[in-house]
Write a structure and sequence with these properties.
This protein has 373 residues and is of the alpha+beta class. The protein is 34% helix and 24% strand. The strands form five sheets. The chain has a five-stranded mixed beta sheet with strand order 1-3-2-11-12. Strands 8-14-13 form a three-stranded antiparallel beta sheet, with helices on one face. Strands 4-7 form a two-stranded antiparallel sheet.
Length: 373
């Protein structure tokens, strides 16, 4: 180590030798705004957008120079972290997808047979039903023969690899995260409620309590087949007794909302370098949020995915929430402020950019504890 004396010399040595020690695998600064980010005292908080491209895409590892991507060791680390969540891993998806292909004929035959039997067939028309079922089996066998010749490997893996270029932008607004789960109200019914409240082995015919039997009778009376002069008996019972059965409403858990995140920026370039950086940043986001077409233009290849992290002084900020892998679903760019004004070369003096990301993984208690979501 050099013989350093003054505080400024020590600070300069640290800046040269230890700056970006948590981002050493990446080309930091290539896509960055504003100038001085990570160096000026008031620009120490920033967000990094890491891009994961499809390996089979034109910009993917299969077609591009490998120098554009992180090392194999780093990619393995990234995949391990990404596979810790609730989202199915790419290997599992490929394995399951191939299993579906292998059984496609059986699935098709079963579906066709069920449709044939259920499509108005009656016992007296058993001959027609039999012929339809046989035809379904033949069709299923044909499908099976066609599909078994196909392999998911023919279409290429949907795996991704991390680019070394990373977009780094200052934190322009306070970070906000929203969590949401969904519940639904369900009526389990009076009879189920009666049995739940009674002993485990209670049967309706053994109930002796008068109120309980009355409630059971009222519930049975709701059966549409039990009508009196066109009206359901339960309506007559309710009207005559002025008492309504308790529906035993319960709240049931249904699902977890996907988290979404909004990032809004106003770019005010002060140097030609900032103007160029802004132009490139916008282009990269636009390019990687959209799908590619396959070689024969028969398929869309899924867009790139993003990993997002908050940093403070070149170290991930553990005081803020973490992100699961995201897709960029919406992007708005507006050129100019109240009026459209440009520099002498035509570059706008002000540009607005709004990004909306949606996570590809649903939140779970395990994910929050293990990954800091």
């Amino acid at each position: 180590m050099a013989n350093l004396g003054t505080a400024s010399e020590i600070e300069e040595y640290i800046k040269k030798n230890f700056k970006n020690q948590y981002l050493t695998d990446y080309n930091v600064g290539a896509l960055e705004y504003p100038d001085g980010l990570r160096e000026k005292p008031d620009l120490q908080n920033y967000v990094a957008f890491f891009i994961n491209t499809r390996d089979k895409a034109k910009t993917g590892k299969n077609n591009e120079q490998r120098s554009f991507f992180v090392s194999d060791a780093k990619q393995k680390e990234i995949n391990t972290l990404n596979d810790r969540g609730s989202r199915l891993t790419q290997d599992k998806i490929i394995e399951g997808g191939q299993n579906v292909l292998d059984n496609a004929g059986t699935i098709a035959a079963g579906t066709a047979a069920a449709f044939a039997i259920g499509n108005g067939s009656k016992i007296k028309d058993w001959q027609s039903t039999l012929l339809k079922t046989i035809a379904a089996g033949v069709a299923g066998a044909a499908i099976s023969e066609i599909v078994q010749a196909q392999k998911l490997s023919d279409f290429g893996s949907g795996s991704t690899s991390r680019l070394t270029d990373v977009i780094t932008l200052h934190v322009s607004e306070k970070p906000v995260v929203q969590y949401g789960v969904n519940y639904t109200n369900k009526d389990i019914g009076a009879i189920a409620g009666i049995l739940i409240q009674s002993s485990a082995k209670t049967k309706l015919e053994t109930i002796t309590d008068s109120e309980t039997r009355a409630r059971a009778l009222a519930e049975i009376a709701k059966i549409p087949a039990l009508k009196s002069g066109g009206g359901i008996i339960s309506d007559l019972l309710e009207l005559s007794t002025r008492a309504k059965t308790n529906p035993f409403r319960e709240v049931l858990f249904e699902s977890v909302n996907y988290r979404t995140f909004q990032f809004n920026y106003r770019f005010l370039p002060k140097t030609p370098n900032e103007t160029t950086q802004i132009k490139n940043i916008i282009r990269i986001f636009k390019q990687h949020m959209h799908p590619e077409l396959s070689a024969e233009k028969l398929f869309y290849l899924y867009p790139s995915e993003f990993d997002i992290k908050y940093y403070y002084k070149d170290k991930e900020n553990d005081y803020l929430h973490k992100f699961a892998r995201c897709a960029l679903t919406d992007m708005v760019v507006d050129y100019g402020g109240d009026q459209f004004v440009t520099f002498p070369d035509g570059a706008p003096i002000e540009i607005g950019m709004s990004l909306k990301f949606q996570e590809l993984e649903q939140m779970t208690s395990e994910g929050i504890n293990q990954n800091g979501y």
